[in-house]
Amino acid sequence: MKNILLIGIDGGATKVSGWVINYQEQTQLFQLSDINLQKKYSDYPDFNPGYTPVDIKTQLDEMNKEIILTMEENKQGDVYMKTAADVIIGLLKKFPEKKALIGIGMPGLKTADKRGISAIANGPRMPGYSEFIELKIREENLTPGAPIAHLGSDADYCGLGEEYSADGLFKDVRNAYYLGGGTGVADALKLEGKLIPFDQAKSWIAKAWEMLCDKGISFERYASAAGIQFIYSRYSNIPVEELNNNHIYPPQILEKALSDDKAAVDTINDVSIYIATLIYERITTIYSGWFGLFSFVNPARELTEKDHKYRGVLLDRIIIGQRLGDLLDDSKQTPLLWSRIIERLSELFSKSNDNRLKKKYLQNGRFKEDFIAISRLREAPAIGAGVDAWITCNKS
Fold first, then answer.
1. What are 19-74's pLDDT values in tens digits?
2. Distances 188 to 56, 112, 126, 176, 298 between C-alpha atoms, Å
3. pLDDT of residue 10
């Protein structure tokens, strides 16, 4: 490890964060170093703030054919890839004597070789992502220790970060669910001691963004920082752009709710109800299979396997991470959000006819608060990216 530079990249919706990751041989765990770089896409002159993605149906149709990038897509994609390359190159230049292993987490569906992005809801497609970055590295006369093996999922990387980090909350528990809320939502599962990617379990459990609540809105809106802002915008009739300009984000919305701002109160109440409902769905779907509590964003989506292999498993921990975790933690000293989530969970489990569920999660009719843990790993996806690069290299 002395001659290896381990880099974890979290490619978000607005910026790229890169960290040097330290490996602790005694514990076989990973930890963030204090060396990191962040760059925003918007800092680049060619960045288009009004960029409109290609219609998602077109993207999905072209996934298995030739991907035809538009001129605007090419230009915006170059900005995204150059941002990531500049972060990586900046970290490499700090340790020119070392060979680097680079892990990269990015949203979107990946190309067949997993090194590019073939479909993405809120950005440009970038089928040549890894190749572009490797070219930029070579142009700087730098050499990574290995090619970029693949691009990973930020959700899966949150799970890896929580499992292999010294500060992770997956590592000391056998069965747990992770919900991370930032710009979007990250779901991760650990069952019977193993990390289970949602893509491998899609026949019996859905991702949060796929499910619609009874208001016809994706659960992602209630579990992500950007989504909570969207809900408040609808209640207050204030455009999201104006909220951003006035620096009104979920923490400020919680403050407004505590001051009896009606739109903020309605927003926080909705978030409380649907976070609790989502937690209840996770616990019960794992324990007894899908009961059709919700509909799906995609009407054709089906969960075909109710009798899955993990039926009967009771989760030991719910982990809430990223900005959503910070928000819930901040609300513990208030009568809103955290206490409302606990109240709603208490109601849902009290109505259950399953005594095993009640015994596990209720105490004197109240949901046991210590089942929900707040993650301090804001950079879990970057740690997970580094862990994946390390594991991949040691497998080859």
1. 999 998 888 899 999 999 999 999 999 999 989 999 888 998 898 888 999 999 99
2. 25, 23, 25, 8, 21
3. 94
CA–CA dist 319, 256 (Å, integer): 26
**Per-residue tokens: 36:** 């990191």
Q: For residues 103 and 123, is the Cβ–Cβ distance under 8 A?
A: no
How many Cβ atoms sit within 10 Å of the Cβ of residue 3?
9
The pLDDT tens digits of the residues spanning 83-114 come to 999 999 999 999 988 889 999 999 888 999 99
First CA to last CA distance, the chain: 16
Give CA–CA dist 133/148, Å, rounded: 9
Tokens at 184, concatenated: 């979007």
One-letter amino acid at 203 equals S
How does DSSP assign 258-311, residue by residue? HTT-HHHHHHHHHHHHHHHHHHHHHHHHHHH-----SEESSTT-----SS-TTT
Give the whole-angstrom CA distance, residue 37 versus residue 32. 12
Specify the DSSP element, H or E, that contains 60: helix 56-62
Q: What's the whole-number average pLDDT of the chain?
A: 94
pLDDT over 70 at 396, yes or no: no
Pull the structure tokens for residue 359: 């015994």
Query: What are the chain's domains?
Result: 4-154+380-395 (3.30.420.40), 169-374 (3.30.420.40)
